[in-house]
Write a structure and sequence with these properties.
Shape: elongated
Low-confidence stretches: none
Order of helices and strands: HH
Number of helices: 2
Mean pLDDT: 78
Helix content: 40-55%
Radius of gyration: 17 Å
Amino acid sequence: MAGRFARHLPLELNLGAAALEAGDLTCARLLQDADAAMYHEKRESHRRSH
């Protein structure tokens, strides 16, 4: 019965990676850099697929 509902949906995963640098007192900068990296990869993957 499960096969009846199976659909092929495209799946895309975008990850952002960043490193905490010396002198960063909080993780706010780390999260900001990771977020920027993720959105950069998202834009690049859309550009490659279209």
